[in-house]
Amino acid sequence: MVDPLERWRALGLPDKPDYAGLLTYAGMPYTQDPAELRGVDVAIVGAPVDDLVSDRPGARFAPRAIRAASCPPGPHLEAKVDALAELRVVDFGDAPVVPAAPEASRRAIEATVRQVVEAGAIPVVLGGDHSIGYPDVRAIAPHVDGRVGIIHLDRHLDIQERDMDERMHTTPWFHATNIPNAPPANLVQMGIGGWYGSRPGVKVARERETTVLTITDIEEVGVEKAAEVALEVAWKDADAVYLSFDIDSVDAGFVPGTGSPEPGGLLPREALKLLRLIAREGICGMEVVEVAPPYDVSDMTAQLACRAVMDVLGTLVAEGKLGSRKREQADVDEAGSPDQA
Ligand SMILES: [Mn+2]
């Protein structure tokens, strides 16, 4: 395990400047050794691929950009949570992807995420284009006893069978919902809509009866109610829920750095709130996809991706789903409370 803060700590300094030292997510320790994931709560995995986009490439640069934009450790003032202090987080580096070899990259992403899951940690995958949704769920689903629900925030359905090629970033949920314990009945797609509407995707979503909450649905019922509906559907008869956050679910005005920007999406505040409400029930993994740094301005898209991860981690800690508060509770449960005795 490499601690990027080591040289600063040696001088008696508790922190390093954000721009200096090894580039890891929020300055967290770095390892590529799966044996070092034992006892870790969360492992960050980069999936730097964009071979499978239907429009503008650039998402291959996102893991580095999100790491560079990642917030310095510290507490969330309103939530009174210091997620990175209460969790054991490591940066597990990037999956060993191969450019222009989508099959090899897919296998590499699946294998790297599987190492995290097998170690008992929660994977947080920094895409990459949305094609990574399929290898990510494939790595996780076999390790869940029952069903896995999927909550997917996006302007696009990404559920068509093929789009020139069957592995494109417009197809991950077609393949993922073919996994026996990730059925379409537990897939919720939120924020969908706009002029890029995919006819083949709409057809598949209707045939498979996935739950689609359009951006207008969310606006009409409000973020709280939308989250309530999503949780109810995704968790129905399920043992775990996977969270997929496409940054283009947010209005193009706030996320210029994405391949298929869509005007009229969620406000960043709404997206973060939605993510926090969803994370309250716990997650088995998360991905942030479609950040494309070459089109970004002042790192604002990468910053939002970083905040999305931080808000989810903070919620998991605050709700006792992960980290030291959960461990303390487990100790209490093990010791037995008086009324159980
Ligand atoms: Mn999208």
Overall strand count: 8
Biggest sheet strand line-up: 2-1-3-8-7-4-5-6
* CATH evolutionary superfamily: Ureohydrolase domain
What count of domains describes the coordinates? 1
Mean pLDDT: 95
Quick one: CATH class?
Answer: Alpha Beta
Which residues form runs of ≥5 with pLDDT under 50? none
Q: What does this 3D model show about the protein?
A:
It is a single chain. The chain has helices at residues 6-10, 62-69, 83-86, 102-118, 133-140, 172-176, 199-208, 215-221, 223-235, 268-279, 300-318, 324-335, and strands spanning 42-47, 89-94, 122-127, 147-153, 187-192, 211-214, 238-246, 285-289. α4 runs parallel beside α5. 52% of the residues are buried. The chain has an eight-stranded parallel sheet, with helices on both faces. It has 341 residues and is α/β, with parallel strands linked by helices. 35% of the residues lie in helices and 14% in strands. The protein contains twelve helices and eight strands. α6 links the parallel β4 and β5. It has a single domain, classed as Arginase, Chain A (3-Layer(aba) Sandwich). It binds manganese (II) ion. Manganese (II) ion binds at residues 154-156, 246, 248, 260, 290. Residues 154-156, 246, 248, 260, 290 line the site of manganese (II) ion.
Q: SSE layout and pairings?
A:
Elements: H1 6-10, E1 42-47, H2 62-69, H3 83-86, E2 89-94, H4 102-118, E3 122-127, H5 133-140, E4 147-153, H6 172-176, E5 187-192, H7 199-208, E6 211-214, H8 215-221, H9 223-235, E7 238-246, H10 268-279, E8 285-289, H11 300-318, H12 324-335
Parallel strand pairs: 1-2, 1-3, 3-8, 4-5, 4-7, 5-6, 7-8
The structure holds manganese (II) ion.
Manganese (II) ion (MN) binds at residues 154-156, 246, 248, 260, 290.
